[in-house]
Amino acid sequence: MAEISRDEVSRIARLARIALQEDELDQIAQQLDTIVDAVSKVQQVDTDGVEPMSHPHSIDAGMRPDVEKKTLTQAQALDQAPEVDEERFVVPQILGESE
């Protein structure tokens, strides 16, 4: 296992603009060593023949059948609109957009 030195922790903290006290450097170096060790163990696992997956459990989305239904016509949709222009809804201008 490659050990992370307190100088490396200090440099990383400086780059990340994280203020660390002198007594924290050794503690964080040890914690980072533990993390790196755990990741290296995971990388050693033989995954040959294992299908990549996005979730540890199979997910059945339970999709409903796609059924065509009657919808409003354009005239029906615009019928109750407060203001219409050229068969489109008129809405207030937003974000200072020009017309």
UniProtKB/TrEMBL annotation:
Organism superkingdom: Bacteria
Biological process annotations from GO: glutaminyl-tRNAGln biosynthesis via transamidation; regulation of translational fidelity; translation
Top-level EC class as recorded in UniProt: ligase
Catalyzed reaction equations: L-glutamyl-tRNA(Gln) + L-glutamine + ATP + H2O = L-glutaminyl-tRNA(Gln) + L-glutamate + ADP + phosphate + H(+); L-aspartyl-tRNA(Asn) + L-glutamine + ATP + H2O = L-asparaginyl-tRNA(Asn) + L-glutamate + ADP + phosphate + 2 H(+)
A GO term for molecular function: glutaminyl-tRNA synthase (glutamine-hydrolyzing) activity
Entry keywords, A to Z: ATP-binding, Ligase, Nucleotide-binding, Protein biosynthesis
Pfam families: GatC
Assigned EC number: 6.3.5.-
InterPro entries assigned to the protein according to its UniProt record, in alphabetical order: Asp/Glu-ADT_sf_sub_c, GatC
Record NCBIfam families: gatC
Assembly and interaction partners: Heterotrimer of A, B and C subunits.
PANTHER family, per the entry: GLUTAMYL-TRNA(GLN) AMIDOTRANSFERASE SUBUNIT C, MITOCHONDRIAL
Family, as annotated: Belongs to the GatC family.
Role played: Allows the formation of correctly charged Asn-tRNA(Asn) or Gln-tRNA(Gln) through the transamidation of misacylated Asp-tRNA(Asn) or Glu-tRNA(Gln) in organisms which lack either or both of asparaginyl-tRNA or glutaminyl-tRNA synthetases. The reaction takes place in the presence of glutamine and ATP through an activated phospho-Asp-tRNA(Asn) or phospho-Glu-tRNA(Gln).
Protein name: Aspartyl/glutamyl-tRNA(Asn/Gln) amidotransferase subunit C
Provenance organism: Corynebacterium lipophilum
